Amino acid sequence: MRALRGVVSFIGRFLVALGRLIAVPLGALWRLFLELGLLWKGVIGVLVLGFAALYVYFIWQTQVWTNFNPDYPAKYAYEKAQTPGEPVGGAPQPAPPEDTTAVPGTANESARAQPQAPAAGKTCAPSAIAEVTADLTDFNVNQNAWISSMLLYKAGFFGLSWDRTPFLDNKASFQRGVNAAVRRTAIELVDSLGRLRGTSQIDSDLQKARGNLQFAEDSWYFGLSPFGPKTPTPSYYRAAIKDLRAFNTRLETCQAVFDARADNLIQYVDRIANDLGSTSAILKDRAENYNAGWFDTRADDRFWFAYGQLYAYYGLLRAAHSDFKGVLAEKHLDGLWNTMEQQLRAALNMQPSIVSNGREDAWFTPSHLTTMGFHILRVRSNLVDIRQVLER
C-alpha cells in the first residue's frame, strides 16, 4: 500500500507541476491579448479558433478507427474462389512445367512467359492477395485518415514526437504495421507471384503499385528536406490501390499472370516469417530493457505496430489460402494452415486500453509486449512448419 500511495502521490505532483508549466505562459499571453486593439484581437481569435478546430479534427481522427474489424477476412468468399488466372468455372489447370529448353530473350521464352490472348467472353479468376492488399491500403488512407503525415502529428507535442508520448499515436503505429505487411506483399507480387518463373517480364501495374507503396510514410504537402512542396503520402498509396485493382481487372479478363506454384508460396511464407521474426526481436528488446510498466511511453508504439502487422497478415494469409488452394490441397496442408489462421485471430483479441511493459513476473503491471511476442512466435512457428512441408 505504501508503494501504491507513493505512485499516486508522484502522479499528483507531476500533474500539478505540468499544470503550472502550461498555465504560466498562457496567463502571460492572455494579458498581452487584452492589451491589443480590436482588429488584432479579431485576427488572433480567428487563428486560435482555426488551430483549435484542427486539433479537434486531429484528435478525432486518432481516436476513431473507422471499419476496424479483426474478422474482416470473413467478408471474402474464399471457399468459392478458384486459382487466379484460371477460367471461371473451368477445371483447375496444373502449373506449367519448367521449360528447360527455353533460353532467356528468345522467342520461345517470350511465348512461354506471356499470357495467351483470351477467347471472346472468357473470364478468369482474380487474385485474393491483390484484392486484400488493395483493400487494406484503402482502409488505411480512404476509410481512415493517414495519421503519420498529418501536420499536427508531424509537429508533435510541444516539439516532442507523438511516438515518444503515451498520447494519440496508437492508430499511427497500427497503420504503419498494416502498411509494412502490405509493402512486403507488393514486393512478392512483383518479384514472383505476378509473373511466370523468374525470366518473364514484370507486370507494369504491380510494379507501379510497389513503387507507390514504398513512398515515405510521413510526407505532407510541404517539406524541409528537400525544401519545397511535396505530394503527400496518401496520394501515392491511393495510386497504388488503383494499380492493384487494375492488375486484378486484367487478371479477370485473362490478360495478366498469377503464378500459383509451391515455390512461390514458400518464398512468400518465408518472407512473412522473417518479418514477424524481426518484429518479435523488437518487442523482446523493449520488454527486456525498459520495464517501466504503465509509464513506458514507447511500449504502445511497439505493440500496435505488431498488432497492425498481424491484422494485415491475417487477411493476406487467408487470401493466400484461396490463391494457393490447389497447392495446399496437394500437400495436405489445409489443417495446418487453418491452425495458423486461428492463431493469428487469437492474437487479435489483445486490445488493451493502456499498453503496459512490466516485468514478466509483475503482479500489478502486465507485460503486454511479452504476450504479443508469444503470439507472434506461435504464428511464425506455424509458418516455418508450413514451409518445411511445402519443401518436401
TrEMBL record:
Transmembrane segment boundaries: 12-33, 39-60
Disordered, as annotated region: 83-120
Q: Which InterPro entries match?
A: UCP029693 (IPR016936)
Q: Which Pfam families match?
A: DUF2333
Sorted keywords for this record are:
Membrane, Transmembrane, Transmembrane helix
What is this protein called in UniProt? Answer: DUF2333 domain-containing protein
Organism listed in the record: Paramesorhizobium deserti
